[in-house]
Structure formats: C-alpha cells, structure tokens
Amino acid sequence: MTDEIQEIVAALPAMTKVAGVWAAAEERLARGDAAFVADLGIALAGPDESRAWQVRLVRHRLLRLLAFAPGVEAVTQTLRLVSAYQTNAPKLAHHGMELLAACHPAAELAVAFTGRDVPADLRACLVQELVLRKVAVEEIPGVRGWLASPDWRSHPLSWLPLTLCAVEGDPALPQYSVRGGSVPYWSGIPGETGVPSEAATQVTETTTDAAATLIAAAVANWAEESNGRVEARTYTLAGSLGGFAELGLACLEGKPATIVPGRPDRAWRLLFSAASTGGARNSGLRGAYGRLAAWRSLAGLCAALEGATAAEVEERAGQCAWFTFGADSGWFKRIAWDIGLAVVTPDGRTLSVLAATDTN
C-alpha cells in the first residue's frame, strides 16, 4: 500500500464529503493508472455493514470507475478489486461482475477465465450476467474450457441454461453510469378497477417450510434487507378455483380478492425484477443470482418435481393456470413493490400462492 493510499484510508472516516477522493481517483484513471484505483479499493475491503458511509460510497464509485473504463487493463484491475471483495462483501463483488458484463465486449472479458486469480463464484456470475445480455458465452475464448471444469459443474448457477429460455423473454436489466443508474420494475397485482371474486374454494392447506422457502426465493431479499412482508402457501383443491375466501391469507385482511388470469412469462418477469433489483431499500441479488432465484420461485409455484431441469420447470409452468391477485387491504402498499401470484397445477389439485409487498 502506497503512502498516498494509506493517507486516504486513514482520513476517510472523518471526511464530511468524499468528492475529493472520487476526483483524485478519476484523475489517476485518466492518466492510465487503473492499478492505483484498484489498490485504493482493495485497501478499503471488508464487510459492507461494518464500514463507515464514506468508505461505502468511495468503494462503489471506485468499482464503477474501473468497470466503465475501456480496455482489457480496466477489466483486469476490476477483477483484482472484486476478488478482494468476494469473501467479506460478495454482493458488491457480484455487482462488479454485472457492471463488467454491461460495459465491456466479450473479447475483453476473456481474461476473467484465463488466469488463476479470479474466484469460481465470480466467473460463474460473469457467465450468467452475459447470458442475460444474450452473449454466446461458449464462443468466448477460455470460457468453453472452464464450463467443463468441476468448479462450474458444482456451482449453483450451472443449473441455469446458457441461453435465455422462452419464458424469460427479453429480461429488462438495470441501466448504469459511473454516477448512478436506473432499474426497471412492474407492480404485480391487479388494479383497483378489477372485479373482486368472493366465490368459495374448498381447500386444505399443505404448506411446508421447504415449499414456502422455494416459492418465496425471489422476494426473500425484500424481507431480509428491506421492509418487505412475504406470504407463501400451498393448498390442495377439492374443486375448481373459485376465489380466495377460504385461504386465510393474511395479505387479504379479510377483504375480497381481485383475481385475473396471468401468464408464466409475466410472472417470471416480476420474479426476476424482485430478485435482481430488490425492494424499496436494497439492491437485490443482481442479475446472475437474481435469475436463479426467479427460477426457484417459478419451480416452487408450479410444484415442479425436486431435481427438475430448467426445461422441465418451463414446460411445467406452461401447463399450469396462472393468476395475479390483490385486494383493497392495508397489506398491499400499491406503490411499486407488490406481487400477488397464484398457480393451479395441470391436474387442478394443487394451488400455490405468493404475496409480497415492500415500502420505503
């Protein structure tokens, strides 16, 4: 660590403004000294939640400065930086892979797979971030060989296809700049103009902890990191789905539910948005792990068999009956972060429900 970096690190927690540190890093980067920016970021490594706000702001800006800089050297230095964050700040490291996939052509990213210093988890994240951007990952030098390695085959993200499936469509992804960004989101409950259904449905609740966890995978970050509330349940139906009056859902607060037909691709879009970009007060799981969480929720909702492949989950989802629902209750906030999904299996005997809401 250079004396200049030591001085910055020592002074940072007492600063009331950090724009001067940003400017110094930008100036060094403009002179071609990407290594200095990475070294400064590495000197600030550690768990996000335990660092002063000044450190967190500087780390995020340094990461974006490097990721947005052109050329292979910028990629190499970004990889050094995120590798240092992998252990204690994995979500920040995953964000770095998201930024690299968004900012650099595939040819420049091959360096991530040709050296030995990039953790397998970050390589797996980069693969799936590129898949979300419709890059033919197996054509990138070095990637094909790594995809045959035990590190990839044993990684959770290897369950995901290496091309986008029909149910995923054209995923809406965040748009970033060095100074900020914007994220897409759609509300997932019917508007207040819908017609409430009060018809009774004969049901027996069958919810297990495992099923609830799987169904709620995409929105778990809302409850864990923001102000979110989540309700995930399963039932056995004794007849056709008439309404939600007998389900005992807390999200309805005794009010009649508005239920409208839905589609699995629209449900996946909601689940992916919720998982990848987060709720009102957090940033979600980013693209790669957000994609996995969305698929896990999709599998749970359509009661796919344990161990099913993505193709089998997609086929199953297409055979199910999908609905969105909501209610004029105080549980749903009707701001932006609301989801109400219900799915009936092809045999008409199982109903799965996911309700989620968040607010700032």
Structural overview:
The protein is an alpha+beta fold and 360 residues long. Helices cover 44% and strands 13% of the residues. A seven-stranded antiparallel sheet has the order 3-6-7-8-9-5-4. A two-stranded antiparallel sheet has the order 1-2. The chain is globular.
Give the topology, please:
Layout: H1 3-11, H2 19-30, H3 34-43, H4 53-68, H5 72-85, H6 90-103, H7 106-109, H8 111-114, H9 120-132, H10 143-146, H11 150-153, E1 175-177, E2 180-182, E3 196-197, E4 203-205, H12 209-215, H13 220-225, E5 229-237, E6 257-261, H14 264-277, H15 286-301, H16 310-319, E7 321-327, E8 338-344, E9 350-357
Antiparallel strand pairs: 1-2, 3-6, 4-5, 5-9, 6-7, 7-8, 8-9
Short précis:
The chain has 360 residues and is α+β, with helices and mostly antiparallel strands.
- The low-confidence runs, each spanning 5 or more residues with pLDDT under 50, are none
pLDDT average, as an integer?
A: 92
* Radius of gyration, CA atoms, in whole angstroms: 23 Å
Shape: globular
Distance between the termini: 40 Å
Taking the sheet with the most strands, its summary is: 7 strands, antiparallel
Key terms for this structure?
single chain; 360 residues; alpha+beta; 7-stranded antiparallel β-sheet; two-stranded antiparallel sheet; 16 helices; globular
